[in-house]
């Protein structure tokens, strides 16, 4: 975003909501007071962020969402740019079916506050529901964070001694799950499928700690979002939704990936 914006003469101000919807609302208010030309949001909470977007709408500031969207129908978004999370969820489901050879019990470590994760789990569930030999026995929140997901995974493992697989909605979640599985001495017995494409996760796939994961292209999301702003401010009408396909990353790919050390 910074590179694309600066290339075209825009100053890009970046803040982080840090998973805190109230903090993010304050940040939006600050941007409105500064009378910025446009606001890009990665909502911490897909529903509650709607009121902040409406405030920006009323102030005449165009709002764009990136990576995860807003679920408030009253909030007006010019363009939403994101991974095709529904497709990625289906890819994750297909990876789990392959990992477990179509049989076994599966848990989801979730983060349903954000729209992107809702789409991921929707796609994942649809694939597993079609695979008659697989059953989802738990769906618990992990906050999209390593430490919280570690505790969630421990709880799932204690209550499900025959668990065969865990779907983690992002890589920090997967790192927590991997640690819990290793502490329980059940590595090799439980297949973990993640979602993201962080370097640490690619290494974990190469090492066999994570089975596979759909990977995202955040550089494309950032660049295309700023390009959509440029079109809008130039009087053009950008597309309302731009989805970037994810790609399933496997151990075979990791073994050939020179960037994985």
What does this structure look like?
The protein has 261 residues and is α/β, with parallel strands linked by helices. It has two domains: 2-83 and 217-245, Rossmann fold, CATH 3.40.50; 85-215, Response regulator (Rossmann fold). The protein contains ten helices and ten strands. Strands 1-2-3-9 form a four-stranded parallel sheet. The protein has a four-stranded parallel sheet with strand order 5-4-6-7, with helices on both faces. Helix 2 packs parallel to helix 3, helix 4 runs parallel beside helix 5 (115-130) and helix 6 crosses helix 7 (171-183).
Overview features:
261 residues, alpha/beta, Rossmann fold, four-stranded parallel sheet, 10 helices, 45% helix
Report a brief summary of the structure:
This protein has 261 residues and is of the alpha/beta class. It has helices spanning 2-7, 21-34, 50-58, 85-100, 115-130, 146-159, 171-183, 199-206, 218-233, 251-256; strands at residues 39-41, 63-66, 80-83, 104-110, 134-141, 165-168, 191-193, 212-215, 241-244, 247-250. It folds into two domains: 2-83 and 217-245, Rossmann fold; 85-215, Rossmann fold (3-Layer(aba) Sandwich).
Order of helices and strands: HHEHEEHEHEHEHEHEHEEH
Shape: elongated
Range of strand content: 15-25%
The overall strand count is 10
CATH architecture of the largest domain: 3-Layer(aba) Sandwich
The average pLDDT value, as a whole number, equals 97
Per the CATH scheme, the topology name of the largest domain is Rossmann fold
Question: Number of helix segments?
Answer: 10
Strand arrangement, largest sheet? Answer: 1-2-3-9
Distance between the termini: 27 Å
Structural class: alpha/beta
Q: What is the domain tally?
A: 2
Radius of gyration: 19 Å
CATH class of the largest domain: Alpha Beta
């Amino acid at each position: 975003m910074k590179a694309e914006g600066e290339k075209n003469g825009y100053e890009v101000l970046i803040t982080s909501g840090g998973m805190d919807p109230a903090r993010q609302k304050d940040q939006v208010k600050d941007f409105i007071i500064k009378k910025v030309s446009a606001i890009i949001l990665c909502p911490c909470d897909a529903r509650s962020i709607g009121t902040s977007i409406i405030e920006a709408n009323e102030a005449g500031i165009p709002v764009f969402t990136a990576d995860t969207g807003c679920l408030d129908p009253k909030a007006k978004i010019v363009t939403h740019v994101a991974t095709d999370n529904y497709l990625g969820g289906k890819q994750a489901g297909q990876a789990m079916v392959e990992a477990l050879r179509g049989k076994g019990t599966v848990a989801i470590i979730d983060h349903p506050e954000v729209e992107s994760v809702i789409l991921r789990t929707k796609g994942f569930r649809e694939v597993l529901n079609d695979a008659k030999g697989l059953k989802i026995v738990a769906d618990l929140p992990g906050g999209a964070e390593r430490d919280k997901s570690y505790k969630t995974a421990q709880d799932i493992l204690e209550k499900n001694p025959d668990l065969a697989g865990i779907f983690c909605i992002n890589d920090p979640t997967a790192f927590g799950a991997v640690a819990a599985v290793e502490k329980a001495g059940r590595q090799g017995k439980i297949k973990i499928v993640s979602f993201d494409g962080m370097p640490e996760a690619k290494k974990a796939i190469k090492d066999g700690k994570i089975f596979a994961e759909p990977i995202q292209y955040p550089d494309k999301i950032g660049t295309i979002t700023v390009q959509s702003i440029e079109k809008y401010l130039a009087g053009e009408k950008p597309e309302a939704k731009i989805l970037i396909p994810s790609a399933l990353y496997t151990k075979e790919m990791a073994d050939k990936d020179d960037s994985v050390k």
